[in-house]
Specification:
Elements: E1 4-8, H1 11-16, H2 36-44, E2 49-53, E3 71-75, E4 78-79, H3 82-89, E5 95-98, E6 104-109, H4 111-115, E7 121-124, E8 130-131, H5 136-154, E9 167-169, E10 175-177, E11 182-183, E12 187-189, E13 195-197, E14 202-203, E15 208-210, E16 213-215, E17 220-221, E18 226-227, E19 231-233, E20 238-239, E21 242-250, E22 253-254, E23 259-267, E24 270-271, E25 276-277, E26 288-291, E27 296-299, E28 307-309, E29 314-315, E30 320-321, E31 325-327, E32 332-333, E33 342-343, E34 347-350, E35 354-357, H6 360-372, H7 380-390
Parallel strand pairs: 1-2, 1-3, 5-7, 9-12, 10-13, 11-14, 12-15, 13-16, 14-17, 15-18, 16-19, 17-20, 18-21, 19-21, 20-22, 21-23, 23-28, 24-29, 25-30, 28-31, 29-32, 31-33, 32-34
Antiparallel strand pairs: 3-6, 4-8, 5-6, 26-27, 34-35
Length: 397
């Protein structure tokens, strides 16, 4: 019988990862080259059945397929290695695997026992486990996980040829091009990490890229872009200007000049030309970041932290974004001045004029137009998700 694998959301951790987890289970977050779910699927086997245990309003798009007898429950915020996945796959019925600090990684058994946390036997991981707890854990770990993903994705495979028009600094063996990738007249520095160019990616002339870097299928790097290490372009993303240590989950654009660093951008976002998001305070002091779970700004211990953008959020031309700014889902910022460091979902406005609610119909009209440009339909399940978020009585939750 095929394994029945369910990615479960830890309630507290999911809230700490808002607004990115407003619209997806934790396992669907991108880290490195692939999503957390894709890493587990690669390591546990593509022939298994996969589903999700998440908040009720996401179940229309991310359903659960539970068996009464036996399910392999896997924490969606835990990033697997080959060794960790082997430990999970070897769990017997009734066994749970935990981190050294007692955090649940996986459980093999009945749904009722999982719900009650009734475990017959508890094992502990043999190695240090990477688990997401804060938004900034994503960009803080992106470079290291990308190198790990690069090894997994390219092992035993042959890269497409890199055209002679490019300049390579370091070993060309650390560059991998998938079929359909077009890279011409670019400078690729791989001394500090590999460069992965996915299917049908286009890297235009004059682009300067430092590894570790990854561009997922159909992404585009614009002419003259300056991209530093630790940057991931999710599928169908377009990026230009200056970008450093940033994750684009997918289908989002920063096609023009402006700076973005130490940031995570959701899906279907657009960053207007000239928009610059600070990642360092002028006094170099410790950064505080909005936390949805605690409903306050909390110390991070970081000196560098940029922009976090929920799905379908946008900035206008020449916007200025403060250090460590969190924008919820469906936010539209425009005009002069620095908006506040946290803007709740479905708000539109500027620092000068203030903010107002975005009507849900207007949001749907825009989202439908944006997605249609990529040949994707805004489904009823999508509408239900956004309606649920919109109707949360307190959008700080």
């Amino acid at each position: 019988m095929k394994s029945n694998i369910i990615f479960f959301d830890d309630t507290d951790i999911r809230r700490s990862l808002l607004p990115l987890t407003y619209t997806r289970p934790t396992a669907c977050l991108r880290l490195g080259i692939t999503t957390i779910e894709q890493k587990w699927r690669t390591l546990l086997g593509t022939d298994a059945t996969y589903s999700y245990l998440t908040v009720p309003y996401l179940k229309g798009k991310f359903p659960i397929k539970a068996r009464r007898s036996s399910n392999l429950m896997v924490a969606g915020h835990v990033v697997p290695t080959r060794h960790l996945a082997r430990q999970v796959a070897q769990l017997n019925a009734g066994e749970a695997l935990m981190t050294a600090s007692g955090e649940l990684i996986a459980f093999n058994g009945r749904a009722a026992d999982f719900d009650s946390r009734h475990f017959e036997h508890i094992l502990h991981a043999d190695e240090t486990t990477l688990a997401l707890h804060h938004l900034y854990d994503l960009f803080e770990n992106n470079a290291a996980v990308m190198a790990q993903d690069f090894s997994e994705l390219t092992a035993g495979r042959q890269s497409e040829a890199l055209p002679a028009s490019n300049t390579v600094i370091g070993s060309a063996e650390r560059i991998f091009l998938e079929p359909g990738a077009v890279v011409e007249g670019a400078t690729l520095n791989v001394k500090e990490g590999p460069v992965y160019i996915g299917h049908n990616v286009q890297v235009m002339e004059g682009a300067c890229i430092r590894g570790p870097f990854a561009a997922c299928p159909n992404a585009q790097v614009k002419m003259g872009a300056k991209i530093y290490g630790g940057t991931t372009l999710g599928p169908w993303s377009k990026v230009g200007g200056e970008v450093e240590n940033t994750i684009f989950i997918g289908y989002s654009n920063k096609a023009h000049d402006g700076f973005l660093g130490d940031a995570v951008i959701g899906e279907w976002c657009n960053i207007g030309g000239g928009t610059t998001a600070s990642n360092l305070k002028n006094d170099y002091s410790e950064i505080k970041l909005w936390n949805y779970a605690t409903r306050r700004f909390e110390r991070t211990g970081l000196q560098f932290c940029g922009l976090f953008m929920g799905d379908h959020s946008k900035t206008g031309v020449n916007c200025m974004i403060n250090t460590a700014t969190v924008l919820g889902v469906g936010v539209n910022i425009h005009g002069a001045g620095f908006p506040r460091n946290f803007v709740a979902s479905f708000q539109e406005g500027s620092a000068e004029a203030g903010f107002k609610d975005v009507p849900l119909k207007a949001f749907f009209d825009t989202a439908q137009r944006v997605m249609a440009r990529r040949g994707i339909t805004l489904t009823d399940a999508d509408r239900d998700i956004f309606t649920a978020i919109y109707n949360i009585s307190d959008r700080y939750k």
